[in-house]
Amino acid sequence: MEDKTMIERIDALVERLNEASAAYYNGQDEIMSNYEWDSMFDELTALEQESGYVRGDSPTQNAGYEAESGEKEAHEYPALSLAKTKQVSELQEWAGERPIWLSWKLDGLTLVLTYDNGRLVKILTRGNGTVGTNITFLRQAIGGFPQTIAYKGHMVVRGEAAISYTDFALINDTIEDDDEKYANPRNLASGTLNLDDPAEVKERHVQFHAFTLVHVDEDMEAELRSWGARMDYLEKLGFTVVDREETDAAALPEVIEKWTHRVESGQMDIPVDGLVICYDDTEYAASGSVTGHHATRAGYAFKWQDESVETKLSYIEWSCAVSTISPVAVFEPVQLEGTTVSRASLCNLSEIERLGLGRECTLEVIKANKIIPKCIGVKDAVGEVEIPTQCPVCHAATEIHVSRKSGTRTLHCTNPDCTAKNVKKFTRFVSKNGMDIDGLSIQTMVKFINDGYIHEFADIYHLKEHYDEIRGQEGFGDKSVANMDKSIEKSRDVHPVNFIFALCIPLIGIDAAKKIVNSIGFDAFLQRMQKGEGFEDVDGIGAERSNSILKWYENEHNRTGLSHLLEELHIRQVEVKDTSGGTCAGLTFVITGDVHHYKNRDEFKAYVESQGGKVAGSVSGKTSYLVNNDAESASSKNRKAKELGIPILTEDMFIQKFGGL
């Protein structure tokens, strides 16, 4: 390649990769897959080495990308990136004769946590490695780390914030607007940590996984010279810590093969995109130099060689979920990364067009991060893909939508009452707070809906009629079907509060269901709906919720569905409780912070309600007491309570005054 052409190609690669990084770090639509990014990054690295032309903004010279929004702050210790390789021999050469540790390279967003005097005082995103975004306001919304620790010195911990594949699928499948869907768990984690509402962030189950203890004061430094000891110490303090294994250069190929098998065999629900090795001797590791944006002894990242195979397309299956009809490539089964693969999502109509898919063609398929089957190339395409004009579930007409943000073309069902569009309701029905049926994930229910097995809630109790067809399908062996059947049968005996919640009546959640059952009982709940009598007299329900219940029952589909369910279930008899004489009767409490005597806030709340009290989420003039074990904290709830003259109780004070454990 001529020098001029090479420089032009480098410039184009830098611009494209930086554009993709900006989209990822700011939680926007993903521009390219990991596979494509790695391929372009490797090409850029090779061209820079050959030409000597390296731009200052090249992704080979930067640790990340600075987010567009949020308060920026410099890192106390630069969050440098690790050198990467796809060759085990290079890892062995780097390890030398020294003891090393192997751990996961998680595919999420790096965060840096700072503790002082035993308290979490700061959370920064990695940003560009030198400057990050301060997201300390999300400290209660992210799991995996303690708010307070036993160590009272200055501590800095680095780790990865990630969202599991399970939670990713659950969240994405309930997003109706295609513009708001996320490409993968990493993209979702990044977008989530850009949100301003801690409550919304908490709902998405972001988990922190510590992978480095960056700093402790001198009094602990000598004790924690070993990286393994540091990880053990973090675990003892209450952090979720990455899986790890101590090894050496000679054993590295065998250990890597074992860890790789864990990914290939589907044992990992946390997204990973490689492995990391580091020296056990942290003093030696810190003595290395810095080359570009790499600390030469901080660690070495291993990324798997992407294995691709070619196969023949059999047909395209169209699956409807929520509001979108998505194409899935079904192809001749092939062995890929240790498993048999015969299906891969094509995402949308734009992806079909981008790949140049034909009615008949040869597909090149990989497993992205060794987990998700993905079509990356097409050849020998013949004929055009036929876009369905009818929904595969309800057979209503379809229409094509074009994303206002990205221009992505997606196919939709026009029937607002299509069963597949109500997948959110089925998710709520089988949830822990509802009928508590394990084995019926959103993906499973979408499949059963598309296969015609499920049209209404009661159909779940007739899945047994289809077990012969279900067994043997991908993901449905004898054991999984047996477990699903056991869970379904167990759910036939249900508490009335959970049943009312599972009905998906607008505005009627668990709390409202408890108020109804505790006040008038389940039989009276049914009778009032049948007679059209309201529920305004039930404390905490009010006219809006009462009208919502009656309006729901007026719908013939809902009435019929309820009738069919009652034929399948046994609703437990629950005694109507008179809590008017309880210790908390007539009082409203706000519970904040950690609880020590009760298992969690839900258990604490249940006690208050059993004694006739109410639990609110925010402090107001109607609040009787704020319960906070840190009565002197400067939290917004404490400040508000003091402004309004509302008493603040610790848990011990509450128990002494109102009883309990």
Descriptive report:
The protein has 661 residues and is of the alpha+beta class. The protein has 6 domains: 3-51; 72-302, DNA ligase/mRNA capping enzyme (D-amino Acid Aminotransferase, Chain A, domain 1, 2-Layer Sandwich); 309-413, OB fold (Dihydrolipoamide Acetyltransferase, E2P) (Beta Barrel); 419-491, DNA polymerase, domain 1; 494-571, Orthogonal Bundle (DNA polymerase, domain 1); 588-658, BRCT domain (Rossmann fold), CATH 3.40.50. The chain contains 23 helices and 26 strands. Strands 14, 15, 16, 17, 18, 19 and 20 form a 7-stranded antiparallel sheet that branches. Strands 2-13-10-3-9 form a 5-stranded mixed sheet. It has a 4-stranded antiparallel sheet with strand order 5-4-7-8. β19 (398-402) and β20 form a beta hairpin. α1 (3-25) runs antiparallel to α2 and α16 packs across α17 (510-520). The longest helix has 23 residues, at 3-25. The model has no long low-confidence stretch (mean pLDDT 86).
Q: Find the structural class using helix and strand composition.
A: alpha+beta
> What about the largest sheet?
7 strands, antiparallel
CATH-assigned homologous superfamily of the largest domain? DNA ligase/mRNA capping enzyme
Compute the average pLDDT: 86
What is the terminal separation in angstroms?
77 Å
CATH topology of the largest domain: D-amino Acid Aminotransferase, Chain A, domain 1
Proportion of residues in β-strands = 15-25%
Work out the number of β strands: 26
Which residue ranges are poorly predicted, with pLDDT under 50 across at least 5 consecutive positions? none
What top-tier CATH class of the largest domain fits best?
Answer: Alpha Beta
Overall form: globular
> Roughly what percent helix?
25-40%
Count of discrete domains: 6
CATH architecture of the largest domain: 2-Layer Sandwich
Q: Helical segment tally?
A: 23
Rg for CA atoms: 28 Å
